[in-house]
Amino acid sequence: MTTSPLPTTPTSSAERPRMPLRRKVAALSTAAVLMLASACGASDGTATTSTAVGSQSSVSASSLTANTVGVADTHADANDGDYSPDGATTITLADGASTVDGTGAHVEGDVVTITKAGTYLVSGTLTDGQLVVDSTGDGKVVLVLDGVDLTSADTSPVVITEADEAVLVLADGSTNVLADSAASGDDDKEDDAPTATLFSMADLTIAGSGSLRVNGTSNDAIAAKDGLVILSGTIDVTAADDGIRGKDYLVVQGGTLSVESGGDGLKSDNEDVGELGWVQIDAGTVAIAAGDDGVDAVGAINFADGTLVVTESEEGLEAAAITIAGGAVEVTANDDGLNATDASSAGESAQDGVLITISGGDVAVTTGADGLDSNGSAIITGGTTVVSSTAPGGGDGSLDVNGTLAVNSGTLAALGGISRSPATDSEQGFVAVSLDTAVEAGQQVAVVDTGGEVVARYVVEDPTSAVIVAADGIVNGESYDIVAGDAGGQTGFSTGGSTAGLTTVGTATAGESTGGDMGPRGGGPGNWGGAPGERPEGEGGPNPGVPPGSTEQS
């Protein structure tokens, strides 16, 4: 596993006595995290990487750089799911009659405790018991679950209190269930209390081709106080609070995940300077229905490939840096869809180091407030991004960016009230217009050039009275008609085709911002700081600066 050379931030020996820091995110994650950390300052014993961040208010769209997603360097190995039963210890769970065949584990009542590194084959049922890993020596503890049904009435059923590293393997063809109860949360406020049904104080990896169902009745479903990597498996979790949490980082490299949570779906919440929590999805399928954020990280959210569908959330994705480089991302949110923020109170000023990057993939965002909301800047350099917002514009709308909003390549269709259109020096041509007649849900809206060619067409999911479209074929300075009407069998986004039966609902000059709904974030309708359709000097706004050590593309 290789990474780009990056500055890293060591921890003190008091913080991590048993292993060196091994969590870097090539390109984006660590770089963005370190820059944010350095902006916050350093505590005693913690080194930070200094960075010079230029004045964001003076940066143009053409000079704004996009973050990229690199290889995540974590504690996990690609072959962590491989194991040999030869020499392994067998643990058979049974109420009042659990047994251990081999070394490294013992039974006391309905609690089985593992004290040494090694491979443990676990099967059977406990209706009120616990599996504990307390291994102080070097080496991995590998738990192979093969038909485990384990419930605890008053605590977490699986607790890894100490291990050099823990691997949970879901045996081929196996179905495994872990559950707690409401009473399990009674001790959650104690230091290092097990706050999840599957809880680990050590780095945890989940692998294998079997299935795992986790019911977190009292708090979280799966949580690791260090790093958490999911290599494979079918994992279905329900949680009163957060679904799956890796404090230092949470990386999904494969598998099928289904998360239903009262709090956040996926989460990484380390707030330590230089080690801000991050989430990365490299492959696999993730489906989330969340009561709060779909995916939440203090530092960065990186999506390299795979499929992520957030069907319910207050805010879809929230982190200081959000980067989507490929795959398919579909987000439904009551509030903001993609929200980039460092959680500081910067008012309407752009926050340094805060950036949304979309460089590839298919992104669909449906929201009740801001679709793409960055308290710093945002840049689109590839892929297809469709945003639908029911917000009226002004303070909330399909696009809401405090700094520079650059669309330099790719396709963007933003429907709904408009708080911000792309910077006028964006490399990709765009039209931004408030419509004379609203387009109803299920109708199509198309951008047509003076020659009658449809350069962009989209079937809207919600009624809209304002449209921003940036796409190949749109040339800034030229005039375009916006037409709408019956979808006629069209779906999603497309180009070309007939305009028969469609009615003109607006006109626009590409590269200009017109219409009553458009204004800077927090401004009222029709207010760019001047007359409607005009922009004050310096449009494009703040730039988050360049994270140190990152691999970038313009």
Descriptive account of the structure:
- The protein is mainly beta.
- 2% of the residues lie in helices and 45% in strands.
- The strands form 5 sheets. It has an 18-stranded parallel barrel.
- A hairpin with a 5-residue loop joins β40 (443-448) and β41 (454-459).
- The longest helix has 12 residues, at 29-40.
- The two termini are 26 Å apart.
- The model is unreliable at 1-58 and 515-554 (pLDDT under 50).
Rg, nearest Å: 25 Å
Helix content: under 10%
Give start-end ranges of low-pLDDT stretches.
Answer: 1-58, 515-554
Q: What about the largest sheet? A: 18 strands, parallel, barrel
Beta-strand fraction estimate = 35-45%
Total number of strands: 46
Alpha carbon gap, first and last residue: 26 Å
How many H/I helical runs?
1
Shape: elongated
Structural class: mainly beta
The overall pLDDT, averaged over residues, is 82
